[in-house]
Design goal:
There is one protein chain. The protein folds into 3 domains: about 80 residues, no CATH class; about 160 residues, P-loop containing nucleotide triphosphate hydrolases (Rossmann fold), CATH 3.40.50.300; about 160 residues, P-loop containing nucleotide triphosphate hydrolases (Rossmann fold, 3-Layer(aba) Sandwich). The strands form 5 sheets. It has a 7-stranded parallel sheet. A 6-stranded parallel sheet has the order 15-20-19-16-18-17, sandwiched between helices. By secondary structure, it is of the alpha/beta class. About 40% of the residues are buried. It is globular and about 75 Å long. β19, α11 and β20 form a beta-alpha-beta unit. Bound molecules: zinc ion. Zinc ion binds next to loops.
């Protein structure tokens, strides 16, 4: 399809990719892809400093190695943009039929106020709080004012789960879904659902930018992606950060009152967060290398199989998946399904668990968030391993009790020593339950 003028609204596109007939349009602005800051050369698209030795093409001529995935930019390139004109005509309404809890409604009101005032806000909502639904009133409000909105996340899984829910709730809004292997062609839409990486192609486009699971890799501590966010939003705009586990940077901004915050400490069904039970099992790692598991863990697994109680068994590393499954297989006489981030059958295995075709999965932290199995227990082998941050442990515990039919459940950590991360996770769960009015 030929590029339209509207494809340049709020975007930054390499001049060579734009047809000549469009560039001559008076609405188009062009700017140099690179800029100088003292001795340094900076890529304007992604904000990275150019490594002049490694990316030299000719004398005083370089390319950016840090945003190559968006097409190579060199120091002789220009980027083309057209100021975001908000050419929308939204008259629809939200089709979601559910009812928000009082807590959700209060947060939703604060989100609307932030959008109106064009200020940023952190929505600190516990796991299972129903934060997507809580956004609906704010989204409807923004769409009706013909604002342009992006809902983004560092995680593709999160985006893929969000997109159908948003499109079902707002069937009348124009939207496009953008991520690495996307098949949808870009077109100018009022709602953009995307991975954070995709924001590198936008320039002062969004009046409202919502970032879900803001604290996870690859966004956490990634300067390039934070630059992309700052550049993709309009100068006057509202950024809404969503997470159950804000990182230190966000918490500090809240503390310094630089960032407004809404807490949602209560789950949508009104029951408290499941708390963690620590089970000390001695040196589990040494045992594992002898091809043995802590007997307490084996018992817990066998009990759940007898009761047909679904569960996830988390292990620290990909290499542990094979070990654990080889130990369990002869003992349980069952097929053991394992899953990790790069597992090509990951989506299918998650589906099997969701459809109750398997009682349990053995998994790495990849299933810590973004995926919901309503009625499960969680067992963590080696919860004291360095790989498990406090945030990861809170998210893992947060997989339990997601459904009103079984609003609680067991979270068992099998460990040698209680680490600071475990202590912090327990403290935060306790604090959120207290904030929600539970003892
Ligand atoms: Zn770059």
């Amino acid at each position: 399809m030929v590029m339209q003028l509207s494809d340049l609204f709020g975007r930054q596109i390499k001049e060579q990719e734009v047809p000549e007939s469009l560039i001559t349009n008076s609405a188009c602005h062009s700017f140099s892809a690179f800029t100088r800051r003292g001795q340094n050369v900076i890529c304007v698209r992604c904000g990275s400093q150019i490594n002049k030795q490694e990316t030299k093409l000719a004398i005083d001529h370089f390319y950016c190695a840090n945003c190559l995935q968006m097409g190579r930019l060199t120091s002789s390139d220009n980027l083309i943009t057209i100021n975001e004109p908000n050419q929308f005509n939204y008259t629809g309404s939200c089709q979601w039929q559910g009812v928000l809890t009082n807590d959700q409604r209060n947060c939703a009101k604060q989100v609307i106020a932030s959008i109106d005032k064009r200020i940023d806000r952190l929505l600190w909502a516990v796991t299972g709080a129903g934060k997507t639904e809580m956004l609906f009133p704010g989204l409807e409000h923004a769409f009706r004012q013909q604002l342009r909105v992006a809902v983004v996340s560092p995680r593709i899984d999160v985006i893929l789960e969000l997109a159908p829910r948003l499109r079902t709730a707002f069937p009348d809004v124009t939207s496009c879904l953008l991520y690495g292997k996307t098949t949808e062609k870009y077109s100018y839409t009022q709602l953009v659902i995307a991975t954070v990486h995709q924001l590198l192609r936008f320039y002062h486009a969004f009046d409202v930018l919502i970032i879900d699971e803001v604290d996870v890799f690859p966004l956490a501590g990634n300067k390039q992606l934070h630059y992309a966010i700052q550049r993709a939003k309009k100068v006057t705009s509202s950024v809404i950060y969503l997470t159950a586990t804000p990182d230190t940077t966000l918490k500090q901004q809240v503390k310094a009152t630089k960032l407004a915050v809404s807490y949602l400490p209560r789950r949508f069904h009104g029951f408290p967060l499941a708390t963690i039970t620590n089970v000390k099992v001695g040196n589990w790692r040494a045992r594992l290398t002898q091809r043995k598991l802590p007997p307490q863990l084996v018992t817990a697994i066998e009990q759940r199989i007898i009761k047909q109680q679904p569960f996830l068994l988390f292990v620290p590393h990909i290499a542990d998946l094979k070990l654990v499954s080889e130990i369990l297989k002869p003992r349980l006489n069952l097929p053991i399904i394992t899953v990790h981030a790069k597992d090509p059958k990951r989506v299918d295995k998650v589906r099997q668990m969701r459809n109750k075709e398997t009682l349990f999965l053995v998994t790495t932290t990849i299933l810590e968030r973004g995926v919901t199995f309503p009625l499960i227990d969680v067992l963590v082998l080696g919860a004291d391993d360095d790989i498990f941050s406090a945030a990861a442990l809170i998210q893992i515990a947060g997989r339990v009790g997601r459904n009103v039919k079984r609003p609680s459940g067991d979270v068992y950590f099998y460990l040698h020593k209680r680490t600071n991360a475990i202590k912090q996770a327990q403290r935060e769960i306790k604090m959120m339950n207290k904030k929600a009015g539970f003892k």
